Amino acid sequence: MPVKTEAVGKRYPPVTYEVGREKIREYANAIGATHPVHHDREAALAAGYRDVVAPPMFCVVYSAAAVGPAVLDPEVGINFATMVHGGQEFVWGEPVCSGDEITTTTTVVDIHERNGMGFYAFESVSGNQDGAQVVRGTWSNIVRGV
Amino acid sequence: MAPVPEPGTAIEELKVTPDKYLPHRYAGASGDFNPIHIDPEFAKAVGLPGNILHGLYSMALVARGCAALADGDPRALRRLSVQFRGMGVPEQEITVSGTVREVDDNRVTVDVVAEQAGNRIIRNAEAELEL
Fold this sequence. Notes:
- The complex is a heterodimer of chains A (146) and B (131).
- In chain A, strands 1-3-4-5-2 form a 5-stranded antiparallel beta sheet, covered by helices on one side.
- Chain A contains 3 helices and 5 strands; from the N terminus they run E-H-H-H-E-E-E-E.
- Chain A is of the alpha+beta class and 146 residues long.
- Helix content of chain A is 21%, strand content 35%.
- Chain B has 131 residues and is of the alpha+beta class.
- Chain B has helices spanning 22-30, 35-38, 40-45, 55-67; strands at 14-16, 77-84, 94-104, 107-116, 119-130.
- Chain B has a 5-stranded antiparallel beta sheet with strand order 1-3-4-5-2, with helices on one face.
- The mean pLDDT of chain B is 95.
- Chain A binds chain B through residues 23, 26-27, 29-35, 37-38, 47, 53-57, 60-61, 64-65, 84-92, 95, and chain B through 16, 22, 25-26, 28-32, 55-57, 59-61, 63-64, 67, 72-75, 77-84.
């Protein structure tokens, strides 16, 4: 059965996430990021940040609610039983600190089929309250046996 | 500022052994509660050896390994691209290693891999840092 490609180019409504100090600490603890700038406000200020700063991969926390609906969209039509997260890329811009409001918009950028597998790629673009881009993510999923 | 390394320089290896409950803490921190990561019975029922690590957790370890080149400064990492292959599991040591491939002024490109029990759980990872 060929993959449906009608959803390529589809864009989803932006989702805003409010970044909190304790959430940054919780995430930093989970991944073992011990640098004081992720935990201690004074250390973060001394290093030139506005507040406690998120580790780069914290982008998955504020992007999740924006990317989820695209991956789950029936129009995209992913079969979750045989889906794997094949690859991931992030390109970072401005750092993200506690108190920031991050708005993320997701677009379906590619759907194609090769060797009986479906390849689905989504792009998320996240910006802060000042309009500066903080990260661009490319999320690649592979579905076996399409 | 951290010194800019020469091409061919190995990054300091990062070794981490995620404990049994790490996937639960990562689920809470990230918001990803997919049961394949936190429920061993569910994971076995869908053909996995047990609950497996979140791929994006392993990617975060790769990001940490790269940040060591900049003494952990979170501003240094500009881009990270990875492919997820194989499955990471709790309670086994993960080693993140890498080599500087290219240096252009203060911009450094690093090839990185994360390996666990001889299995490359993240491969073809490429990081760009500004030092």
